[in-house]
Every structure is written in C-alpha cells, then in structure tokens.
Specification:
Length: 186
C-alpha cells in the first residue's frame, strides 16, 4: 500500500495481549479496548494469551471469548514468559496489522488511536514506550529500522526514545515478520 493511503477503518486489526495473573484488571482492559477499537473499526480481534496464570485470569478470558466473538484465547500449560506469549499471539493473529500491548493498564488502550494514525501514514512498524512507567510519553522520533530480523529493513519506524523501561505498544504490519512466525520455528 503506498504511503498515506492506509485506513485503519478498512483494516482488520488484531490486538495481542499477553496476560499473567491479570484477573483484577482484565475486565477494565477489555472494556476499554472494545470502546477504543470500535471508534476505528468493528472488524477487530483481541487475542488474550494466558501465560499460565494461577488466579482467575484464564476463566475470565474464556468468558470474554464466549460473550464476544472478537475475543480469542490462547492458554499456556504453564508460565513460559512474556515473549513466548507475544510470539504465540502473533502466530495466531489474523489481522491486516497487529498491535501488541501489556495488560496492566499502565499503557492505556486509548493510545492505540495515535499509533494507528502513524500506521495510516505508511509506517509498517510503530513502537512506543515510556522512559518511566509512571511518567508521560517521551518525544517521538521517525527512523529507519536497522534490524536484520525484519523482512523489509527499509520500512519506516515511528517510536519514542526509551531507556530500560519495560512495557509499551507495538503495531506491526504482518509482512514485517517472517511467515507469520512459523509456529515453533522462531
């Protein structure tokens, strides 16, 4: 798609959310995700990847899937870690673009709207994290991706400068990861 001609309202959006013992925040997260995504497009999916939670997260995720066909669950038999959950979510996503977010609500679901706006401008990878999870977002910079693991290294990236903070948002067009991450080989 040429730069500037993308429309999130015409794209199927996948949101991957790794969850681990998130029973207390999951209802609020899901409510806010639906509200935010419906402002853009009703054709979306939310993939809740339960990373072996020991509280009621798995049952709650299953309930959301039963109540709303746009929710899907992947359940791990034990805790394999955050990155394994992200990888599984990417492998099962079916959208024209995929967003990855943390479940703890320190990064608000509403931020997705500004990231989708950057994707619409032609950026294949949009990445935004905070310097400190208790502070406001930092300055935005536009760069070229130097990473060899992306299929098209000349793709434009839009991201915030960051320090060693965890958490944040990612939006990735599916052509930016190898064969939708061939399950079990990446």
């Amino acid at each position: 798609m040429p730069l500037g001609t993308r429309s999130a309202s015409e794209a199927r959006i996948s949101v991957v959310v790794p969850v681990f013992n998130e029973e207390m925040v999951l209802p609020e997260l899901c409510r806010r995700l639906v509200t935010t995504l419906e402002k853009v497009n009703s054709d979306f999916e939310v993939l809740l990847v339960d990373d072996g939670s020991s509280d009621g997260t798995a049952a709650l995720a299953d309930r959301f899937c039963e109540e709303d066909r746009r929710f899907k669950c992947v359940h791990f038999s034990r805790n394999f870690g955050h990155q394994a959950a992200v990888t599984a979510g990417l492998a099962y996503s079916s959208g024209d673009l995929t967003c990855v977010m943390d479940a703890d609500l320190q990064d608000p679901p509403e931020v997705l709207l500004s990231l989708l706006a950057e994707w619409e401008k032609g950026n294949d990878v949009v990445y935004r994290i905070r310097q400190d999870r208790k502070k406001h977002w930092v300055k935005v910079a536009r760069r070229r991706i130097p990473c060899g693991h992306l299929r098209q290294p000349s793709s434009t990236i839009w991201r915030s400068e960051a320090t060693s903070s965890r958490g944040g948002w990612r939006v990735v067009a599916p052509n930016e990861w190898p064969s939708r991450i061939d399950a079990g080989t990446s």
